[in-house]
Queue: 2 jobs
Job 1
Amino acid sequence: MMNVFLLYLLLLKATLTSFSGLASLPMVRHDFVERYGVLTDRQLTAAVAAGQMGPGPMGLYVVSVGYSVGGIPGACAGWLAMITPAFLVIPILRFIGKRAEHARAKSVTRAVLMAGAGLLLSASVPLAQDAVHGSLSIAIVVLSFALIAFTRVDTFWIMLGAAGIGLLAFQF
Amino acid sequence: MTRPRLKDVAWLFFRVGNTTFGGGNPTIAVLQREFYQRHWLSTEQFGIAFGLGRVTPGTNLLAFCAGTGWYLLGLTGAITAVIVVTIPSSMLVIWLTRVYDQGVKHPLGLSIASATIAAAIGTMMGASVLLVRSVFSKTNWLRPLVIATGAFVLARVFALSPIVIIGVAAVVGFFWVE
């Protein structure tokens, strides 16, 4: 089992270098699946699914990753890694304030955000290769992609709908 | 502006943060309405916390909660807001992870888990499109497209580490201003 402190540091590296909940996923996959081999692609995708089934931010999947790698202590490390960067907003509010809205600062932030988008798409390719087999799961991927990208349907309903399809597929 | 009591702040963040589905934006929208109704935050304070929450690393919603909690009650307010928003939903996520682990051992559970995992992959791909669209406009489309596509190619074709790609993007953003 991975050392809890190392687990925290790796997850913190992922959350500190992303600007949106799921944008940390490529870094998490790089470290936990490819580098250390303590997590499978299937477990990572299940963590994302678990994070999206409940209320709260998208970044919650980090807690599930921590739990899969290190049990309850790992989940605590994941929770700490998820909340630590949030407190950076306090010195930003106190000392930087509106200067953070400076054109060059915003330009750097947005560039990192865009890179996060490309990396997220890149990380989802091997996850899809691992977990998506057969026409039904391909149809679910396409449908959920379209619903997220082009409508305002809540992810909770998408996950619930997919669970319903899985139930029906088993029955018939 | 009215200075709230700690238990009222804790209850508001607990109630909204753990009952609103759909991620950060719906939660922030509900909190905004609640802050205005109670006269806890000015429009300017809300705007600054919202804007700076987006440029703070990590999950935007949590930075927003820490920022507004700090405006309301200082460091105590920030810590309280983040803890009450994340602890219950984190416990739920741990339980759901256990359900997944157990569920895949049964054929019915495996069928449901496989379908929801496929949906999770679709939502990941959709989320990347949403990220690009968040800064995409008629006058600003080339830069987001080049950076996002470049990051994808560097990762898939050249297998560069995400941290290197993020560093390259930051340098590009510094010199190629919108």
Job 2
Amino acid sequence: MDAVRLINIELSLGSFKLGPLSTSMANRTYNVIMGPTGSGKSTLLKVIAGAYRPNSGSVIVDGVDVTNKPPELRGIAYVPQGYALFDHMTVYGNIEYGLKVRGMPKSIRAREVYRIAEDLGIVNLLNRKVNGLSGGESQKVALARALIVRPRVLLLDEPMSMMDVSTRESLIPTLREIPRKYDTVVIHVTHDRDEAYALADKVTIINNGRLIEEGEPEEVFTRPKRLFTAQFVGFTNIIPAKAVKTQGGSTVHVGDLTLHSSEGIEGSVYVCIRPEWFNVTNEGGLNVIEGTVLDVERGRMGYRVKVSAGGVTFNAVVQSKLSSGDVVKLSIPPDMVHLIPAY
Amino acid sequence: MVYAGELPLRVALAVSILILLLLIVYPIVLLITLGSAQLASALSVGSFIDAIEVTVIMSTLSALVAIVMGTPLAYLLARYEFRFKQILDSIIDIPIMVPHIIVGIMIVLAFASRYNIIFNTLNLVAHKLMLIDAALSRYGLLHALLSPVVNALVNLLTGITGIRFVNTLWGAVAAVAFLSSTYYIRVVEAAISMVNPEMEIVARTLGASPSRVFVSITLPKVWKAMANGALLSWARSVSEAGALFIVAYSIYFNGNYIYPASVYIYESYVGVGLANAVKYSAALLIIVLIIFVAYRVALGIKRGG
């Protein structure tokens, strides 16, 4: 059974409309909801938390309809963007809070706080005020505060947005193991695709308050079904083309070029290629594009080059240093020429 | 951007400090210097002590009214967007704009005139209840059962409508609470809007009820502002004269008619003269300042609450 089910959620907030939106998340899984700023992902999280009541639709947790229940009766813990640590309390006070309001005896609270603090490696922070904590420390305190109540669902709103890159990377394993270690379902909201790819068992893409696409990250990041998804997850080559079905795939006419795709589709399509999928080659053959370098930009993964070939401009990330005006051959394997039907 | 020490800033500051000294510091210093020598003499006058006592009681009750009325309103204004928010906002600002004499007239009109709709209605209800009671007297058992309840209700209603507002503490508190609550609401509203609402949501998800969230999360962060706002509203009430001229020129308290402090000073000025008024003014000012400072020190309120 799915731990969380959202059924036809609709909510109007001023001029913004969320939904109708339906999805579900299984227990002990890490779910990432990804969308651009203003797409409604944080609002959706607040609907699940109970901070907003939807105009219609239902939020089901473990088979129980919690739509009309207040946040404190939902079994859901929430870590907002910026963490919202209680800055008039110590780290200990923060973590203890959920047990204290449940009326748990002091000795049990102390034991639980130490246990979770040990788990997350923050025992040394327990007596500190929360104001001087670093981004990574704050996040761990917020996680401890949320996890100590053993929530059925853990909601994380952009949990890494306040961190530098190295802290972010070091925290990925901690987050990754939460669903199984704490027997919960994590719903994590972000606009960062690296974060989503690293963490998710399932990725849900939303835009303008609507669900665009969802699936396993490998699927969504390499074989998106929707044009918006392709743009959002980093396909910088999205080119209108005509495809003709062949045995074992299709032949695609892109500008004056002909490419082969292992996906068998007929008609108007968008050819979608991630820039890092191109290889520089010296040989000719199938799916080799010969063109002129228009522009070179240094990037984290290599050189980002724009190559003009057959009336089309391709974006590629290559490891060899090229200059504008160079003639270059780029090859792309047929199974990496992804096609999205153009409706 | 003007850098500290640049000429335009220095000139502007010089002008502003000159006005500050002339308009605010100079009169205060002069009053206290002249009056402090007579502090003991002022405080030995029984009627003046009574005036201060009744003023402090009136102002404290008014501050309590501000807390009870103002805290939920401040929370509402700080946290939510809703239809008619602008209207509510404006209503809260009305007391700042209305001349105080008019506030006095309004209080008299609303609670101490034949136009008092609320009391008139309650009297009518009490009258009807008495008629019902009389009609019931024919039904022995029913009358025996219901009559005590009806009588209690009638007593309650006539008790309420028996409250007098002119020259009583009720009227004085109503008038000064009308004028001073705005200060409390605005200070507390600003403080609540500074509390991250996400903290309240987190606390709710962690299992706290709304009242528990207010007590454990919001209140620790705004109580100083509440205390500060209550003090401001209290001080505003102490200083009130205009509305009291109409509603409670003297207040019937402990079997005597006692002037509120501001009226007392006015009386001493027009009745005896400036020197006499200076004596009492300085004494009142010193007492208010002592209470002000002591209160702030006790609460540890720093600048801005």
